[in-house]
Design a protein that fits this description.
Elements (H helix, E strand, L loop, with lengths): L1 E4 L2 E8 L5 E5 L10 H7 L4 E5 L16 H14 L5 E6 L1 H12 L4 E7 L10 H14 L5 H8 L2 H5 L3 H12 L2 H8 L18 E6 L7 H10 L4 E5 L6 H4 L1 H14 L3
Parallel strand pairs: 3-4, 3-5, 5-6, 6-7, 7-8
Antiparallel strand pairs: 1-2, 2-4
Helix pairs in contact: 2-3, 4-8, 5-7
């Protein structure tokens, strides 16, 4: 389904008929279907909103650099357009960065904040890496980025065992609009929320794959240590897309946390 929010057409899906709202925000170079397993699990007890971020999936992909504030405002406008005043937020990687920005920019909307395989700050030297990704996507499209992305996102045993999930994610990366990917790549390295995490008053859970190379356990610990009262869960035998690589362990941690913090 599509709806106009913050000046763009945003694509979203809703599952579940009763219960508190849970909003799912996906990684860079993915789309809402990254969450299919979690949608199935959560929709038994919650109303679940999954959406395509600006520049991804079937949501509009305007040219130019995006900002995290803009991506957070997109989500806020989407919630408002759908009449959702209060929600749990589950964000992975880019979705976690949007969640942190949203919580600081629009306090009082989140019942809980679940930050998965993400960071609250990148080191300055990471800027060159992000600029290189922008250049590749702009000049050559997504194809040159596909296999390197999969290598960062999944452990080698998972990649080599021929899981159909690898092919699904591969197609998500490949089909991401280059303009949208480049726009988001200019937003993400600017995150700098570590010192403000204590301002977020809702319960926070931090989930990270034990072998995540992109946003490693050390980054998750930084969030945990700077967000008073937060919980840290490390998922064994998982890399960056821990919800895809180890869905049972991921879902168990998430469902337990949400159950302990009802809206």
């Amino acid at each position: 389904m599509k709806i106009k929010a913050n000046g763009i057409e945003m694509n979203y899906e809703i599952a579940g008929s009763s219960g508190p709202w849970v909003t799912l925000s996906h990684s860079l170079a993915c789309n809402l279907h990254m969450w299919d397993r979690q949608i199935e699990t959560l929709s038994r007890s919650y109303r679940v909103l999954a959406y395509d971020t600006r520049g991804h999936g079937l949501t509009d992909a305007p040219a130019g650099a995006y900002t995290l504030e803009q991506l957070a405002d997109d989500a806020k406008a989407l919630l408002a357009a759908l009449g959702i005043a209060r929600t749990h937020w589950v964000g992975l990687s880019m979705g976690g960065m949007i969640g942190q920005t949203f919580a600081l920019r629009h306090p009082g909307v989140f019942s809980t904040l679940v930050l998965c395989d993400t960071t609250s700050r990148y080191p300055a030297e990471a800027a060159a890496l992000w600029a290189d990704r922008v250049r590749i996507a702009t000049d050559k499209g997504m194809e040159p980025l596909v296999e390197g992305t999969l290598a960062r996102w999944f452990t080698e045993p998972f990649r080599t065992k021929g899981s159909p999930e690898i092919d699904r994610v591969r197609e998500m990366v490949r089909s991401t609009p280059p303009l949208g990917y480049a726009g988001c790549c200019q937003a993400l390295p600017k995150i700098d929320a570590t010192a403000r995490l204590r301002e977020i008053t809702c319960p926070i859970q931090v989930i990270v794959g034990e072998q995540d190379a992109g946003t490693p356990v050390a980054m998750a610990r930084t969030i945990h240590e700077n967000a008073p009262g937060s919980e840290l869960v490390i998922i064994p035998e998982a890399s960056h897309l821990s919800n895809v690589e180890q869905p049972a362990a991921f879902d168990r941690a998430l469902v337990d946390f949400l159950a302990r913090h009802p809206a």
